[in-house]
């Protein structure tokens, strides 16, 4: 089965919320692992690490959704 949507990202950890606002799903953080790709268990979006996308399986495109960005950094301690 082909993935619902493929999103090329620049980080090994991504956050996915389905991209549908209130129609999406709970935000989950996904680790792309050694092969540089992971499919969201909720919405079947395929996240592919940039550079790993050139293997003929997906097109090289920039991240298109806010859910494709890595989690925010922890606040600095005073």
General description of the model:
It is a single chain. With 78 residues, this protein is mainly beta. It has one domain (6-68): HSP40/DNAj peptide-binding domain. It has strands spanning 6-9, 13-16, 28-31, 37-39, 46-49. The strands form two sheets. The chain has a three-stranded mixed beta sheet with strand order 1-5-4, with no helix packed on it. Strand 4 (37-39) and strand 5 (46-49) form a beta hairpin. The termini are far apart. Residues 55-66 have low confidence and may be disordered.
Task: Map the helices and strands.
Elements: E1 6-9, E2 13-16, E3 28-31, E4 37-39, E5 46-49
Parallel strand pairs: 1-5
Antiparallel strand pairs: 2-3, 4-5
Characteristics:
single chain; 78 residues; HSP40/DNAj peptide-binding domain; two-stranded antiparallel sheet; 5 strands; mainly beta
| Spatial order of the strands forming the largest sheet | 1-5-4
**CATH class term:** Mainly Beta
CATH architecture: Sandwich
Rg over C-alpha atoms, rounded to the nearest angstrom: 13 Å
- The tally of strands reads 5
* Relative strand content: 15-25%
Give the CA-based shape.
Answer: flat
Report the helical percentage.
Answer: under 10%
């Amino acid at each position: 089965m082909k993935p619902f949507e493929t999103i090329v990202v620049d980080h090994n950890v991504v956050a996915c919320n389905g991209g549908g606002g209130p129609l999406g799903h709970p935000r989950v953080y996904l680790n792309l692992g050694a092969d540089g790709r992971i499919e969201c268990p909720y919405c079947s979006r395929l996240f592919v690490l940039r550079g790993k996308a050139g293997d003929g399986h997906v097109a090289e495109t920039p991240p298109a959704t806010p859910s494709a960005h890595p989690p925010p950094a922890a606040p600095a301690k005073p």
